[in-house]
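dumping the sequnces here before i forget
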Amino acid sequence: MRRLLFTGFNAFGQHEFVTGDTDSAAGFREINAPLSEQNQCTISVGWRYSALALGRKLYMRGLLEFEPHECVTLEAVDNIKALAAGEAYCLVLLHSGQLYRVSIKIKTELQAVRLEAPPRPNSATKRSIFGTTKAQPGSPIVEHIACGSHMNVAVSSENAVYSIPSCLHQFPGRQFRVKQLECGHEHAVLLSRNGDVYTWGNGLRGQLGQSVLKTEETPHLLEALAGIKITRIAAGGWHSAAISAFGDLYTWGLNCSGQLGIRVMKPGGLLKEPTVYPLPQLHDLPECSCSKNQESSSDDCAPLRVFAGSRHTLLIRRCGGLWVSGWSKYGQLGKRSDRQVEFLDAFQALERIRLSQETDQIICGPWATLLCVES
Amino acid sequence: MDPILIKLAKLLPRLEDVEELLDNEVEARYILKKAISFMENCESSKCVDEEEIRYLICALVDRNWERIHTGHFSSVPLNIRKIYAIGCYFKIFFLLLESTDPGQREICSGILDEAQLLGCMEDWSELKISLMQYLDDEKVGASVPLPILMPSTRLQSTCDIPQMEAPSLNEFKTQCFTPRQPTLLLNTIKHWPAMEKWLDLNYLLQIAGNRTVPIEIGSNYASDEWSQQLVKIRDFLQRQFGSEEGSQEIEYLAQHELFSQIPALKKDISIPDYCTISGDDPPGAVDIKAWLGPAGTISPMHYDPKHNLLCQVFGSKKIILAAPEDTDKLYPHDSEFLGNTSQIDAASLDFEKYPLVKEVKFYDLLLQPGDCLYMPPKWWHYVRSEAPSFSVSFWWE
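..and the predicted 3d for all of it:
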């Protein structure tokens, strides 16, 4: 039985909780959703609404147009594969590779998104004997979507990258596969199957991982991580994170609320702020409590997956421990036993939470964290 | 509720004042509607949902803080900055409903300053000024009085650019502005009340001590150790000018629009008539910025896009200029932020690292109290304070 556990900003009834038993660990509460084993469940959490898909059905809840607790149910023509909850609309990707968008209001519908065709690799356009250009193949098959407040990105099965609806970039080569695509407020991070990280968008707060702060219109290889095989990435509001096959964690970008998990002290003990780290910073994580209990090497607690919200970052370690850093004013990081603070500036364990590294999922909203766990 | 607070609450925006701002702002419309009706009914003690509305207002402020920090500040839509400012006003009122003790007022005063720095408060200046007065009720005194600086006598120094004794408007236009000739204008601001008043740092402390301002830490903004922080002017004054001799890091109140934040200080200066001479008709707005710091603050070699009059109130500044024609030989930084800043240290040239600099013609001068330096657009300048210094710059198109 799968359960959805939530913590964070919910002032608009973005999530409806199971009544009765509210005593979930670390301040998480269970969401009332009709999950079943048959249907794949997909979730994306926006700031004022949440979107949940089960099979072909799409449910949106929250402050959609006038009042909190508004609710809309739609049905797509095929099963829904992925959602990306943006500000003005939610992107909906079907298993068929067709892309739709839904405006966030009460009376709304799924509208097909027409992507512009990518430029052909060779400029010589094939012409038929009658001189007209050959018909372009149909709409691209979309495989990955992500969005932030100023960005809407899609990647097609032919490795074309779209700033919806225009084509930004075409990755060359048939071997190139995209493993993961994530978006911050105004930057995007892409991970290829062979472990390379590409970034683009606004990098004036260090989001892109390059030593020079600037805006890049198209994907650029993150040089500082070139040669290191990266296995997972995350994009927060203005920060990014990556984990390597060696189990190393890197974070970069804006550290205004501790989201990079790097504690910065000045000689006088004053916290230096706000701080931008343009280049990926390698972390030396605190030892996990489980490594004290039994005979285990530090490898058993190496970071495995990383997730990020607007100003918070979560980390699953190999042992199943959940570690958190960043802004916690709205409960984004759950409840800890120590006194409640507005932010954590170094990674700390969320005690009482153990995740299964195989099946459990984490979904971050801008100010929220959602666990999808097998219980 | 405190009668003064009730009076202040009447100055808060009404729904009809903000309706236009909220057209496409779903969450701001919902939250501000609730907050406005709450405050309107507050007097008649029909306050309901205080806790919930306070929470929503905080969320609105934090949410719009994030929107203001997304993209270039200059391209943030004005309505977002207005909503942020209005949210801050309501947040302050909810905090004052909780308590009005000095600690709480200090928190509120900090929020007001942040609203001033990030938000757009033009439409609600009456509320701003009344609220500022209310929050600053208690006088700020220094535990140990700050020094009163001595007026300095004019030093003899070399000056590589033309000097003019308080030129007339026409002289300025024909000899400086039109030919784009950097010029040292001697004794042009002698009549400013600031020339005498500001020497007493306790006066600045009185008027401005409670305001929060952005301070640059570290001597030079292009260095890696540099950072920026929001601090209260009183803490900054105590640290940098107080009697305690410390191994303090150099802090610099630089390029800040202090005079729109603190209207009382603006009375001590006046916009020089030279700023009315303009290629545009009618002349555009003049940006007034304050530059206050101890000896040793450095602005590395950089240029600004507008006409610039740098006026010296107290202390003196060593300035090195270079012409726009030499830009290619001055090694500007690559990044978008520092593209107008040179990598060279103009005070100690390194020809080995930057050989082209040998061909650059530099102009040295000393800017002294009462004088202004006119710099045409895109002229490179390096500035170092030789003593505790207060300058005011005027930028215009």
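Chain A is about 0% helix and 45% strand.
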